[in-house]
Amino acid sequence: MNALRRLAIVLVLLPWGLVQASATSPGQAALATAHPMATAAGREVLEAGGNAFDAAVAITAALAVVEPYSSGLGGGGFYLLHDAASGRDVMLDARERAPGQATRDMYLDDEGNPQPDRSVDGALAAGIPGIPAALDHLAADYGALPLTTTLDPAIRAAREGFEVTEMYRRLAGFREAVLAADPGSRSIFLDGGKLPAIGHVIRQPDLAETLERIAIEGRDGFYQGELAGRLVDGVRKAGGIWCRSDLAGYRVVEREPIISRFRGFEVVSAAPPSSGGVAIAQILNTYGALARRAGELDDLSVLGLHYRVEAMRRAYRDRAEYLGDPDYVDIPIERLTSDDYAAGLAVGISPTDATPSSSLAPVVTEPEGPHTTHFSVMDADGNYVAATLSINYPFGAGVTVPGTGVLLNDEMDDFSQKPGVPNVYGLVGAEANAVQPGKRPLSSMSPAFVRSDDLVGVLGTPGGSRIITMVLGGVLAATRGEPVDDWVTGPRIHHQYLPDRIEVEPGLLSDEQRAELELMGHRIEVNDGFGNMQAVAWWRGDGRLEAASDPRGEGRAAVFAPEAP
Ligand code: DON
Fold first, then answer.
1. Which residues, at least 6 apart from 540, have a Cβ–Cβ distance to it below 8 Å?
2. According to its UniProt record, which residues of this chain constitute the active site (predicted)?
3. Which of 467, 469, 492, 552 for mutating ligand 1's site (highest number of atoms within 8 Å of CB)?
4. pTM surpassing 0.85?
5. Residue 10 pLDDT > 60
């Protein structure tokens, strides 16, 4: 080949090579979190040369400081990770575990009746936290920067403080009595025992020190040594049952996510002990079978919504019966997520009539806690993380362990207190999710990826039992090719088997559609705004990168090109 011809080939291939490079990495970074200071923390770390996993560390820690009602070092969560170099997806399970002294009947009185407050308020409600171990694991196995760098924005925020917002006031108001009853929480989260005014600055010097300890010593700074001693003493003085061995024995677990296929998209979500991925797969498979039966199906038509609701109803029923911690119970995941199983369910779904939930097998639904958080982040190299983190109820158990700044979770309420008996929220559970020492309570948290040749979507939301159906709504919007703003803002529709009613946000159904669904036998409740979705979309075809933060919350999204540090 002569030199001229070689040069011509190189010139032709050069732009093609560039196109290929831009198709395998976004070249910019994008993120969306539930608080502007957490978005700023993630951005700072990405600008400093960190990858998406470093940003996940920084965002998690910042949220622990500025959203104390949603997540924290005293809580847990699930991280869905995508590593661009290996192409691997991993679920990092940082869910809380029941303490070793937990017993099956610990929330029942002498007559065997549930005492629901005991699993919600106070130190007995707290599982062993997973977030500090997740920070260490992310930094050690996936990050490029040390914890001393990635935890720095959160340490500064804890020391310098953050301003009380409307949402803070609303959620602190919801938990005011519990916060006021605990001296640690009262002195930090209230102002002279009262709800702080908007703009009041919350400073957390003890939490700053705890974060510094983790930055220097890693997981041992929290689960071993002096801080562990303080945590155990504080919890036991407040009526809890933690032991040093519970903390020393806590481990995060890497698990294979649940993958399903729908309309040519691959949907990746959380594996048990979250019910999210299994339920989403089951709903998509059933809905897909019904759509094929219908020929053409518009997701937002009456028939589309009816079929979606019927698929949700059945998936939540199965969730109740079969799902729990996979380290303790056998879960028929393959069966529940198979096309054959969905085809069988679809056969029992009428195109014209709602199926009363009472005609299906026995009850179980999931707690609806009013807070939790989610963030989505993608770096310029195409690594990405979807993480849903929680301490369960707003401000968790309401107890802050003295000298640590650690606000305890009340995630033990996600166990079923007594199989078959509803708790104060009308919820019942099954054997698979009964309390056992060391066990992880069943969750609905569903961080998710939705992918095709053209799209990488990263999404999730808080919202208790409604998380699953909100993520499903985001996934369906993605498969319709809608922009990421529409995934997060789209009006929501939910059914969870029991109570037997559809919950919808205003704006989804026209009066005629509502009347038609009611005629089919559906009960409909219009509900004001739920969830706080954070999503990132990378449209590989044209290289567009988008991020969106749910206007129902106070979060912020950003897309930017990190400068070389
Ligand atoms: O793990 C769960 O499913 C619950 N603890 C999540 C609670 C929640 O999302 C509350 N949010 N609004």
1. 23, 453, 454, 455, 456
2. 372
3. 467
4. yes
5. no
Give the pLDDT score at 374: 98
Selection from 276, 289, 267, 280 nearest residue 345 by Cα: 289
Summarised one tens digit per residue, pLDDT across range 348-376 is: 999 999 999 989 865 444 334 457 999 99
Q: Identify the DSSP state of 500.
A: -
Residue carrying structure tokens 């041992």: 220
Omega into 394 within 30° of 0, i.e. cis?
A: no
Which residue type is seen at 389? L
Give the rounded percent of residues in the chain with a pLDDT score beyond 90. 86
Structure-block tokens of residue 396: 């968790």
CA of 443 to the centre of ligand 1 (A): 7
3-state secondary structure 344-373: HHHHCCCCCCCCCHHHCCCCCCCCCCCCCE
CA 462–ligand 1 middle distance (angstroms): 6
Annotate 463-482 with DSSP letters as a single string.
-GGGHHHHHHHHHHHHHTT-
Catalytic member of 149, 150, 372, 469 = 372
Q: Which two tokens stand for residue 470?
A: 């909100």
The tokens for 157 are 């925020």
| Residue 312 contacts residue 496 (beta carbons within 8 Å) | yes
Say how many Å lie between the CA of residue 445 and the centre of ligand 1.
7
- pLDDT for residue 118: 92
Residue 453 token pair: 């040749």
Is a pLDDT exceeding 70 seen at residue 4?
Answer: no
Measured between alpha carbons, how far is 326 from 255 in angstroms, rounded to an integer? 10
Tokens found for residue 244: 């040093």
- Determine the average pLDDT of the residues in 415-425: 64
Q: Which residue has the tokens 């990495």?
A: 25
